[in-house]
């Protein structure tokens, strides 16, 4: 049936995900990914599968990941990681954290498609360090 065929398609938050985009399914995975990134810039995209703003922004995130292979992008599904998001004080979506190694959290902000420049500016600011 066509319904069955549709479910074989990747969900919007899985499409066009590059090699430097990692899905985070637990607080442990999050901690491990940050540790393994060493001194690379890490951008964490907190999203909800039901969040229209997240969905609209997602293709741009994929494009940024493609343009910046040196940056690690972590995708944190809010519903799968509620306790993690709560501990990180993530209350609105889409939300972003930028990390780097021993410096820890460099920046955090809410960002929508209309405010994509905030994320681009943050990359310019923190990526050259």
Model description:
With 129 residues, the protein is α/β, with parallel strands linked by helices. The protein has a single domain (21-127), classed as Glutaredoxin, CATH 3.40.30. Helices cover 39% and strands 23% of the residues. The chain has helices spanning 2-7, 27-36, 52-67, 82-87, 116-127, and strands at residues 21-24, 41-47, 72-77, 95-100, 104-110. Strands 1-3-2-4-5 form a five-stranded mixed sheet, sandwiched between helices. Helix 3 (52-67) links the parallel strand 2 (41-47) and strand 3.
Tally of DSSP β-strands: 5
Kindly provide the radius of gyration, computed on alpha-carbon positions and rounded to a whole number of angstroms.
15 Å
Q: What is the straight-line distance between the termini? A: 53 Å
Q: Examine the secondary-structure arrangement and name the CATH architecture.
A: 3-Layer(aba) Sandwich
Main beta-sheet strand count, sense and barrel state? 5 strands, mixed
Instruction: Give me the secondary-structure category.
Output: alpha/beta
The proportion of residues forming helix, as a percent range, comes to 25-40%
Low-confidence stretches: none
Query: How many domain units?
Result: 1
Domain Thioredoxin: 1-129
Protein name: Thioredoxin domain-containing protein
Pfam families: Thioredoxin
InterPro entries: Thioredoxin-like_sf (IPR036249), Thioredoxin_CS (IPR017937), Thioredoxin_domain (IPR013766)
